[in-house]
Specification:
The protein has 144 residues and is mostly helical. The chain contains 6 helices and no strands. 81% of the residues lie in helices and 0% in strands. Helix 1 runs antiparallel to helix 3, helix 2 crosses helix 3 and helix 3 runs antiparallel to helix 5. The radius of gyration is 18 Å and the shape is elongated.
Length: 144
């Protein structure tokens, strides 16, 4: 049970964080309250247009990164499963989880008034998760 929890609890916690991050708390207007002042503190002469661009890019990088972390955590959980059927198909299971969760996340955002759903964001999410899975698979083949 301890081994099971050590593998799956971080994954479940990260899925919960992603769900929380798709709420109003992480809307563009809320993240701009953090990113904007930080950029202006570092670069006081930043124009409003440049600030908007930095904010936009930062949010897209966050999408990629949060799903890359999901990919790594999913690989960590499923790749070492004691069930052979799961361990042998870990990549497919993880990729399916990443794709389905990315689509569900954006669908959920379509119901949050301060958020907008975007298939582009889902694609960025999927790219992050699948990139992490490919890195894990490549490293597994090299070392294994």
């Amino acid at each position: 049970m301890r081994r099971f929890l050590s593998r799956y609890l971080p994954l479940i916690a990260w899925l919960a964080f992603i769900s929380y991050a798709s709420s109003a708390s992480f809307s563009a207007s809320n993240t701009s309250r953090i990113i904007g002042p930080l950029v202006l503190w570092l670069f006081p002469s930043t124009s409003a247009e440049t600030l908007d661009t930095i904010h936009f890019i930062t949010r897209k990088i966050a999408h990629f990164t949060e799903y890359a972390i999901l990919g790594f955590l999913a690989a960590r959980a499923f790749r070492t499963s004691s069930r052979p059927a799961i361990g042998e198909r870990w990549f497919l299971i993880c990729a399916t989880l990443v794709v389905v969760y990315a689509l569900m996340d954006e669908y959920h955002q379509s119901f949050v008034p301060s958020r907008t759903a975007s298939i582009v964001d889902s694609l960025i999410d999927m790219a992050g998760g699948l990139t992490a899975l490919l890195v894990v698979r490549k490293r597994t083949k090299v070392s294994g």
